[in-house]
Amino acid sequence: MDPLLQLLERNALASPEQLAKMLQISTEDVKKRIQDLQSDGLILGYKAILNRDKLSKDSVRAVIEVRVSPERDGGFDRVAERIAQFEEVKSCFLMSGAYDLLIFVEGHTLQEVASFVASKLSTLEKVHSTATHFMLKTYKDQGVIMSRAAPSERISVSP
To answer: What's the pLDDT score for residue 147?
Structure first.
């Protein structure tokens, strides 16, 4: 992967000056490359990774396995793109294995997520079945460990 993309993926808040120093190129080159990457659609946006366990409890997240029928000319794309349009859907992936799509959804309550599955997702013509798994606690998200381990009180012992 492009070293600039690697640095931005680790810390999107790094300034062009910091990135230029790390890459040993000019700040103007960094700014131009970032602009080109955005124009080419390689960089689609920047987002903070939140520790949702520390936020208010008015959010419920679920992972849903979805089995669908592919369309003759569009394969899985059309049905996946339609599912991705729902406001509740935060991520949608084509998968190999026992199910076809994996979607991540969010709602205010368990009932809201269940209602989404029952009234919107399951009623789509190409959807055959779903399996919903509610996320209870996050330990690691997008490479970031959510909790910092407290320093050990024990004295290390060596042989």
So the answer is: 82
pLDDT, tens digit, 9 for 90 and up, residues 36-53: 999 999 999 998 888 887
115: nearest Cα among 78, 155, 60, 71:
60
Query: 106 pLDDT exceeds 90?
Result: yes
**Packed helices 3-10 and 27-39: angle between N→C axes, nearest 10 degrees:** 80
DSSP one-letter string for the chain: --HHHHHHHH-TT--HHHHHHHHTS-HHHHHHHHHHHHHTTS-----PPP-GGGS-S--EEEEEEEEEPPBTTTBTHHHHHHHHTSTTEEEEEE--SS-SEEEEEEESSHHHHHHIIIIIITTSTTEEEEEEEE----SEETTEESSPPPPP-SPP---
